[in-house]
Amino acid sequence: MPASASESTSPPGDGDGNLVLCMVCAAPFQSMQDCLAHELLKHASKPQKQLRQRLNAITKIFNSAQSQSERHELREALEKCGHLRTVLNFFAIDLEKMKTCFGHVRNCIEKEMKGKVRVFPFGSLV
Fold it and tell me: Can you give the residue range of the structural domain that contains 107?
């Protein structure tokens, strides 16, 4: 009786004397199915496990006390810069506002000091 097409094209290692070797660790198996099951069970989780370990290490660094304090300091500095930027934007937008404010401050200082002080541009006092 002739062999069917599936029997004549069976993958290597499925016969009696042929062994299939694992592509990762070269362990011998009787069938390709056993070899694939072994690879999935033993070797498929290693990249995921290594990735998880790396992510956990990075998370530890980000959650450390030093990192938290550095982030807090940075956040405070950025808030201060934001306030300064708001003030600068307020005056930089309109030159007339800045002239008016300078005139108001100059008048207040001169009034308080009653002629003893004269204020010049850039905050010079004489």
Answer: 94-126
